[in-house]
Every structure is written in C-alpha cells, then in structure tokens.
Amino acid sequence: MKIGIVCYPTFGGSGVVATELGKALAAQGHMIHFITYSQPVRLDEFNANIVFHEVLVSEYALFQYEPYEVVLTSKMVDVAKHEGLDLLHVHYAIPHASAAFMAKQILKEEGIDLPVITTLHGTDITLVGKDPSFEPVISFSITHSDVVTAVSESLKADTYKHFRTKKDIKVIPNFVNLEKYKPSENGCARLNFASKEEKILIHISNFRKVKRVDDVVKIFQKVRTKVKSKLILVGDGPERYATEQLCRQLGVYDDVRFVGKLKNVEDILCAADLFLLPSEHESFGLAALESMAAGTPVVSSNTGGIPEVNIHGETGYLANVGDVDAMAEFSIRILTDENLLQQMSEESRKRAALFSMENILPMYLDVYNSLLKK
Ligand code: GMT
User: Fold this and answer.
1) CATH assignment of 178-353?
2) Closest ligand 1 atom, CA of 210?
3) HEC-encoded secondary structure of 277-340
4) Greatest Cα pair distance in the chain
5) With CB atoms counted within 10 Å of each terminal CB, which end of the chain scores lower, N or C?
C-alpha cells in the first residue's frame, strides 16, 4: 500500500505513535509518505520505504497568521496525486482532519477517491478541540472522515460527550515496541546517577499544565523522606521553569535531574524503579506504557484512559487527580518492598505485551484493508 501519514513531528505522543506506525508499516514493505512541517523526531534514519514531504509555509506581509492548513491541504493533494496514495491517515484532529476533508474534496473533482482515516489522540478532543472556536469544524471533520479511531475507550466516550457526531469510532490503543523497551539486567548501571541503595523515580512529558509536573515533585518530596531516592525528569515545555523553582523551594533540587528532550527514552527508562504520571487528563498515557514495557511500575492518576493501561494493585497504583498524599504513599509502598516491586515490574511487562506492536498493527491494517475493498 502507499500510505500518507500526517502528524505533528514533535516529541508529543501523537507524533510518536504516527511515526512508529509508519516505520512498522514500512518494515512490512508498505510505502509511507510523511506529510508534516518538519522531519518527525523519531524518523532519524534512512529507510527506502519512507519519504518525508515538508509542508513549507511562506511568510507574506498581509498575513498576521500563516495559513498552515491551506498549505498542508495543497501538499496532501500534491502527494496523493503524484505518489498515487491509496489512503491518507491523519493523526490529531486539529487541523489535520479538516485539511484532509478539503484535500479529499479537491481530489474528488479530479476523479480520485482518497480514503481518510482520522486518529484522535487526546488533547485534540479533551482540551483544545472542545473549545467552541474549534468545535464545529472538528465535529464536521470527524463525521466526514471515512474511518475514525481513538486511542482508548475513554477518549471515544469523551468524543461523543464533546462533539456533535454519531460517527462510529473504533478504539485502537497505543502500542509499544517490546524489543526496544525492555527491562535491563543491570538497570543500565543506574546511569551513574543513583547509588545501588537509592531508588530512581522518573517522569516523562512535555511539561504542559495538563501533566501536573508540580505533583511529581511534591510526590518525590514525600517519598524521599522515607526512601533514599532520585528523580529524573525527561522532556521540556512551558512548566519547566516553574518546576525547577518548585524543586528549589521544596529543597529537593540536588536530587532531581532535568535531562531535557531525549529521543531514546528507552536508554533511561531501564534504570528507573517507578514511573510517575499524575496527569489532569490523559487519553491513554503512552509514556506509562513504554515504562511498563521496560519493567517499571507506574503510580498515576486515575483519569481518562490511564486505567485501561495501568492496573491498580497489579502494574502499579492509581489515585484521584491531585491526591499527592495517596500517590506518595503508594510509591513508598512499592519502593520499600522488593518483592512487590519485582512482582509489579513483571506484571507491568506482561501487561505491556498486550499492547505490543505485533498485536496492534493488524488493527490498523484491518482498517486500511476494509477501506481499500470498498
Ligand atoms: O500528552 C501530550 O500532551 C501529547 C499528546 C499528543 O497528542 O501528542 O498525547 C496524547 O496522545 C498520546 C498518543 O496517543 C496519548 O498516549 C496521550 O495520553 C495523549 N495525551 C493526553 O491526553 C494529555
């Protein structure tokens, strides 16, 4: 198949899922065309079955805002026509789903039928998308996509709650590469960051308000009163500075390492003992899944799709959003009981295996094949 994939090229979960999906499809012999404004971060090596098409918006004095969606639409049309795409798979509704609708209409005029699959990822529905300034366009684009998928049952329910659409939504969860994310024998030598007696807690995100990184620091402050430990914060974003300040205020800064945006988080996850994900909203929690695949249990909030991934009492624990006391208590429980830690680590790996690339990829292929048969 010749498949067009439209996504955000950044470190965000939707871009990661789209890129890993494209790479996995390319490995099976499909020809993949990524259409986005810069090279996706996880697309960093030559692959004969992958082409990257850059959406380049030029500046013009008249524009206060550059019309990205118009240029993206034109690029979709161009790639579909000249590369002979069989279908277009857009990740994240805004503005990809509406641009795809427009591209489809333009192509129809030229006698080309381009099936469009829209995958909803999270904040496009639960945060940004439900804003009244986006809602009519998103409702329309969801209804008029050929197939819509969502990454969790919770996100599917949220879509029906916030948008005026009766479109059937198929749930296809996030997936993980079990070869890449796996437990390591020596805990990656604890990264030369923590001693053998110390535990390592980790959090990975884009440091947006929705991630509640301040709660991560508050939980850590409580944990370290009972457990010798260090905290690794991976990623960067708007809350980074406030988080650094909070670490200093709470007197934990010296035991926290900000490592910034990392391309290969698997190199660091294998050293961690516990992953913290106290998000306000989370449609799935790809970072938690990757951590579980590396054998690291998760203490998280019980919001959105997280309970579909992290199982309370098995792969970690869940608590209400903002309940840092409970999350700290659960963390201490896991980190002070080697048997429990070991057991939860094994359960985490086992559960992550349900979301392996091998299990999830055929779900997308089924969707593609059903569209091509029509
Ligand atoms: O987590 C983010 O803020 C990034 C965001 C994105 O769209 O790039 O991630 C969303 O999509 C991921 C992949 O499907 C999900 O695993 C994340 O849970 C989801 N984030 C939120 O719902 C906040």
Assistant:
1) 3.40.50.2000
2) 23
3) ECCCCCCCCHHHHHHHHCCCCEEEECCCCHHHCCCECCCEEEECCCCHHHHHHHHHHHHCCHHH
4) 68
5) C
* CA–centroid distance, residue 260 to ligand 1 (Å): 18
Pick from 43, 45, 65, 63: nearest CA to 54? 43
Residue 324's closest CA among 182, 210, 220? 220
* Distance, CA of 100 to CA of 55 (rounded, Å): 14
Domain range 2-175+356-373, CATH class: alpha beta
Judged by DSSP in three states, 218 sits in helix
Domain boundaries, the chain: 2-175+356-373, 178-353
- 185-206 average pLDDT score: 82
* Chain mean pLDDT for the chain: 94
- Using one digit for the tens of pLDDT, what is the confidence trace for 35-61? 999 999 889 889 999 999 999 998 878
Measure CA 325 to chain center. 27
- 62: its two tokens: 């008249």
Peptide bond into 95 cis (omega under 30): yes
User: Is the predicted pLDDT of residue 188 greater than 90, yes or no?
Assistant: no
Q: What is the pLDDT of residue 129?
A: 67
pLDDT for res 191? 63
* pLDDT tens-digit map of 263-280: 888 888 888 999 999 999
Note whether 300 and 318 are within 8 A (CB): yes
For residue 240, the Cα-to-chain-centroid distance in whole angstroms is: 19
* DSSP conformation class of 60: -
Predicted confidence band at 187 (pLDDT cuts at 50, 70, 90)? low
CA of 124 to the centre of ligand 1 (A): 9
Q: What is the pLDDT of residues 308-355, one digit of tens each?
A: 999 999 999 999 999 999 999 999 999 999 999 999 999 999 999 999
Identical fold between 2-175+356-373 and 178-353:
yes
User: If you take atom 4 of ligand 1, which residue's CA is the nearest one?
Assistant: 12
With a threshold of 0.70, does the pTM exceed it? yes
Ligand 1 contacts (CB < 6 A) are 12-15, 17, 92, 121-123, 126, 151, 174, 206, 208, 210, 281-286
- Quick one: which atom of ligand 1 is closest to the CA of 206? 3
**What is the model's pLDDT at position 322?**
98
